[in-house]
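DM from R.C. (forwarded with permission)

"hey, sorry to bug you on a friday — could you get me a structure for this? deadline for the figure draft is monday and I only need the backbone to look sensible"
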Amino acid sequence: MEEKLKEIMAEIFGVKREEINDDSGMNNMEAWDSLS
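My reply, with the result:
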């Protein structure tokens, strides 16, 4: 399940799956854009 989530996040943010890890979030991913 965790690998599938990483695949989905990578596709949404336009990054390689290997770039997604436990520390990935809005504070350290340039592609993460929030409406809030």
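R.C.: lifesaver. DSSP finds one helix and no strands in the chain.
me: no worries. Helices lie at 2-13.
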